Amino acid sequence: MSRVLRLNTLLDRSFQPGATRLAAMRAELGRLDALCKTLGVRELSSFIDTTAVELQQAVELIDQEPRDVGAAEADPETGLIYGIEDMSWQPIAAGMTSLEALEQHLQRELQTNSPTPLVQELAYCIQTLAPMEAEGAQFHLALTPD
Question: Alpha-carbon distance 4 to 19, whole Å?
Fold first, then answer.
């Protein structure tokens, strides 16, 4: 089963699921975590929420045959079959430190004006989260079945 990474945000009880696939970040997660250690910031993997994948795996274990878990009744706040409290959330301020450190380091490494998909995805996350940071919003990188 392939899995994708998406940026989800939460402000008060307003849940915003990410529409953008973060394929480069997903593919480079091990390298990014190692770089986070070198830079002295929290690893990106510490911001990952695996609720969707865990639910899919549980359903497959119980049923013994894969099926679409999206057919169950949706939570009114999230539109998913699980709620806000079921997911793991982190303060945006904590994530911004790691994201900004990674983006700056990779930009210096590149020394070019044409950013890689990885740098573009890090910039997307920073641009999405920055306006919400002062408001005390939370986020996670959701690992979901494709």
Answer: 11
